[in-house]
Amino acid sequence: MSRSLVFLLLTFVFIAIDWYVWQALKVVIRSASPNVQRWVTWLYWGFTAITLASYILVQFLPPDTFGRTTRNFVISGIAIPYFAKIFAALFLLIDDVRRLVQWAVSLVVPPAADPTTDPSVPRIPRSEFMSSVALVAGGSLFGTFAFGIISGAHDYRIRRVKIPLKNLPSAFNGMRIAQLSDIHSGSFFNRTAVKGGVEMLLKEKPDLALFTGDLVNDRAEEVKNYMEIFGKVKAPLGVYSVLGNHDYGDYANWSSQAEKRQNLRDLIKAHDTMGWRLLMDENVPIQVDGEEIGLIGIQNWGMGGFAQYGDLSKAYQGAEKYPVKLLLSHDPSHWNAQVTPKYKDIDVAFAGHTHGMQFGVEIGGFQWSPVQYRYKQWGGLYEQDDQYLYVNRGFGYIGYPGRVGILPEITIIELVKA
Do residues 330 and 352 touch, judged by C-beta distance below 8 A? Predict the structure, then answer.
């Protein structure tokens, strides 16, 4: 199917949805004054016209017309209203199916007289009730996603986790590790809020800091305005990092492979400039008071069509001697694919990647996100045969410039002797 045909089809679908929801709105406001009805009409169709015009504009302008942040806001400004309208339309469809059935029955069985036609009996007609429910449902969804941009995008939360390890050397008992993941600096729109998130981490005074990939969306230049902020992330035992799937520039258009390779070199240099020790399929010792544990870091390796640049066998070489081994690997699918089947002595793996889909519910011990249907391990701590995986929900965001329910995370992990 050609792009033009898809565009025309979607435009028709959008207009049909607009018209369908408008029928419900007309029912709800039919008893209002003419002036109110006029204002509601102008507001609804004015906003709809802006949304449709934005959709059409995005289709015809070159992809690089807007910066990444602006483009995310434009696309979200199109998607959110239509998600809300589709949600409202589902309720309207239920009522229309009921009406269709009622109409079909009336052809066979004549309807009895309705005793509630007496004007003294207050009653909301069924169609008005369902129309109201549909509009409230759609409006609530719209408000939720809008609030997710205004508040959720930078509502940083510190999550504290203790992990007991049998072979942990005494010198490391109580060691505090700060984990950041999925910064996606090219999506940020509030530099002050980002700085506040980093300050939250620094107040925790971690012994060791880890970053598990996706510093940018595509291009190394995205982090330029944030290097000063993230360069302040320090810890006595160092700051270590790995690359995520977005860091390689695989999702961007490049004029040549040489340009793409230079982009990766620039990104690697950015890690170094910030004082982050980037681990590229290698391991290093972490030493305290004459004792040591091993830190292993690999390049991105993921299942389900994601890049598999990392080489765990290479990264593991020489790590046998460490009594405790910590692994940095961006994609959590790597844990069950390679780590738990082949490397039983890797004690803790740190990952990110999923963002918790930036949407879900976490109340007490209950967790739900659509991403769980794609990833078995998607947020929080997991254990299997004395091996642990912690999946960070991400510091930043991509695509939708906000978060609903699954808030941006700074993890503080404490290692304790079991």
Answer: yes
* Three-state DSSP state, 412: strand
CATH of domain 156-417: 3.60.21.10
**CA diameter of the chain:** 92
Residue 365, pLDDT score: 85
> SS3 for 294?
strand
Please, what sign has the CA dihedral across residues 25, 31, 35, 36? negative
What's the whole-number mean pLDDT along residues 269-276?
98
Q: Taking residues 136-156, what's their average pLDDT?
A: 96
CA-to-CA dists, residue 137 to 21, 83, 405, angstroms: 12, 11, 18
By the 8 A CB rule, do 167 and 48 touch?
no
Distance CA 230, CA 189 (A): 16
Task: Report pLDDT digits (tens) over 75-90.
Answer: 999 999 999 999 999 9
Residue 283 to residue 281: CA distance in whole angstroms: 7
Mean pLDDT of 32-38: 94
CB atoms within 10 A of CB 301: 22
Check if the beta carbon of residue 183 is closer than 8 Å to that of residue 212: no
Tokens 């035992």 belong to 237
Cα separation of 269 and 125, whole Å?
67
Tell me the C-alpha distance between 165 and 417, whole Å: 5
Contact between 88 and 137 under an 8 Å Cβ cutoff? The reply is yes
Q: How far apart are CA 333 and CA 331, in angstroms?
A: 6
The sign of the CA dihedral 191, 195, 196, 198 is: positive
Task: With beta carbons less than 8 A apart as the criterion, state whether 21 and 90 touch.
Answer: no
- Partner residues linked to 177 by β-bridges: 208, 413
Rounded Cα gap, residues 278 and 292, in angstroms: 19
CA quadruple 284, 386, 310, 239: dihedral positive or negative? Answer: negative
- In angstroms, the Cα distances linking 10 to 6, 89, 249, 278 are 6, 16, 30, 44
Q: Report the SS3 class of residue 225.
A: helix
Q: Between helices 3-29 and 68-108, what is the axis angle to 10°?
A: 60
**Which of 167, 183, 262 has its CA nearest to residue 220?**
262
- Would you say 381 and 342 are in contact if contact means Cβ atoms under 8 Å apart? no
Task: State the pairing for strand pair 175-180/409-417.
Answer: antiparallel
Residue ranges, CATH 3.60.21.10, the chain: 156-417
Q: What is the pLDDT of residue 118?
A: 53
